[in-house]
User: Which sequence fits this backbone?
């Protein structure tokens, strides 16, 4: 751990933290550069505990003592900056005062991930990073084994996803999958029943599924507004719905995932 004070908020030394509010830019470049950003001392600590390797840290000095024990083993720069410099670099007021750039871990093979799983959550094209992070937190808390993320789904390791997940994205096994034809085949080959959460005339109420869930179950949640694609619905073995009252047709996707996982309980 090498302490370095930031002299210029625009210097190359802190380039990993530049323009963090530019979602399109960060989404396009972080994976390409092999990094992700963790925000807050708690999330940084959880990432390191999960075996992720930091490449640098940027923080206000008051946050340093709490992070020294977890950062000392690493030969990395720890950039100290004041609140004004942090805002100038990142583009926003960093209320939690500590950021770290981590090496992006290699994602597991889909087949290897499914081999040991009994209950998985599939996120199809969910573009809101907050919802993705909230679903990962529910998965960690309520008993699913893994998450599969489609090609156009938001990045679970984007800063906002990580923060909303409270770092649980580091403990939940997950990976990217291909298009539905391949994903459906992989799930079927592993003995999964695929349940799509959607509105349909022939949908099974959640209570019915929860009363006798399959031994291996893949729960598919779709994008905000548009819902699941036709390909996802065709690939599903059944459609499941959460009954609603007072004319409400559906829940936010993160809330729906929490309800479904709670109703099903931990895999048996």
Assistant:
């Amino acid at each position: 751990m090498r302490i370095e004070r930031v002299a210029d908020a625009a210097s190359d030394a802190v380039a990993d933290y530049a323009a963090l509010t530019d979602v399109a830019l960060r989404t396009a470049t972080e994976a390409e550069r092999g990094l992700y950003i963790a925000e807050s001392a708690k999330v940084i600590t959880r990432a390191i505990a999960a075996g992720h390797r930091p490449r640098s840290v940027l923080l206000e000095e008051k946050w340093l003592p709490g992070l020294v024990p977890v950062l000392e083993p690493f030969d990395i720069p720890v950039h100290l900056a004041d609140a004004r410099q942090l805002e100038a670099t990142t583009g926003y007021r960093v209320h939690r005062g500590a950021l770290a750039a981590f090496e992006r871990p290699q994602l597991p093979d889909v087949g290897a991930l499914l081999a040991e799983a009994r209950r998985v959550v599939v996120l199809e094209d969910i573009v809101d990073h907050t919802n993705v992070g909230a679903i990962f937190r529910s998965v960690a808390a309520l008993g699913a084994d893994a998450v599969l993320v489609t090609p156009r789904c938001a990045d679970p390791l984007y800063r906002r996803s990580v923060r909303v997940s409270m770092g649980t994205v580091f403990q939940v096994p997950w990976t990217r999958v291909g298009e539905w034809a391949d994903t459906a085949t992989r799930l079927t080959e592993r003995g999964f029943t695929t349940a799509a959460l959607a509105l349909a005339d022939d949908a099974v109420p959640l209570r019915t599924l929860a009363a006798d869930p399959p031994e291996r179950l893949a729960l598919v949640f779709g994008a905000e507004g548009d819902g699941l694609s036709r390909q996802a619905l065709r690939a599903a073995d059944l459609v499941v719905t959460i009954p609603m009252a007072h004319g409400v047709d559906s829940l936010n996707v993160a809330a729906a995932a929490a309800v479904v996982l709670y109703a099903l309980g931990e895999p048996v």
User: Anything to note?
Assistant: The mean pLDDT is 92. The chain is about 35% helix and 20% strand. The domain at 2-103 is CATH 3.30.1330.30 (60s Ribosomal Protein L30; Chain: A;).
